[in-house]
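Exercise 7.
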Amino acid sequence: MKVGIVGAGEVGAACLHSLALRGSAAEVVLVNRTPERARGNVVDLQYGALLGPPVRLSAGGYDDLAGCGVVAVTVGLNEREGGATDRHDPAGRLRLLAKNAAIYRDVVPRIVKAAPDAILLVVTDPPDPLADVAREAAGHDRVLSSGTFLDSLRLRWHLGRRLDVDPRSVEALVLGEHGTSQVYVWSSARVGATPIVPSLIPKATTAAQFRAAVEEDVKFANIDIIEGTGASRLGIGVVVARIVEMIARDERAVIPIGSWQERYGVTLSLPSVVGRMGVERVLEPALSPEEERALEASAGALREARRSARP
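Solution. The predicted structure, written as tokens, is:
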């Protein structure tokens, strides 16, 4: 499969790196408003990429996206540039929406003109409402948000660390918004079929304390990274490559990923079957009453953000 990346900033470069070294696609083309930046990233990586699977790398313009099966869109202001790194700000990434929505309304029609059949994978923050902007600008529904896939991996990692088990053995989901209203599905969190709450909670803490500490770790993981490096990019790069693989190989893997949800009137993340056509089926998870209310609240926050960003 040929894959496009639009945006050669920190995240776009990380996506290029992961796609190439994992061999996620047969061909990857990087597009940027400053062509020299795209070319520089490709030239830098192409030498080391000889040590990985065979992948053709190139830099180009929008016309070079023709034939892409997936286009990852990473353009826009990041959290540091957009002033979205205040841990006490309930808006979080949604603070970036207005400016990034304007960029998407310009960029997405150019992508669709060149690659009308491509699935658009929205990576720019905030990805969920930007996926709704992209749907409108594209005039089709083949639009995904990277959603809470990365948040769920972060949750599994932090749970594994606190429980002293391999995070790969942890089953846990984050749903809803990729942002401050995200929903932690504790009711189904498991290790080896054993519920984490209350069965595996360390004796030195209460379930409420344990949950609060883990949720804070996950919710502010991006800010921890930004404070150290200036941009949260490497993890999402691998996540984008993995989503591309699921589509390219028609894997029908089940992950939490953002797609349009008619019931909620917005794009948000639910467990979904991902294959050749993108999200092919959404699985309705069994949630506790508390989690159902939290998911409704998350959808409400996204609807309000989307209304505020209308042109």
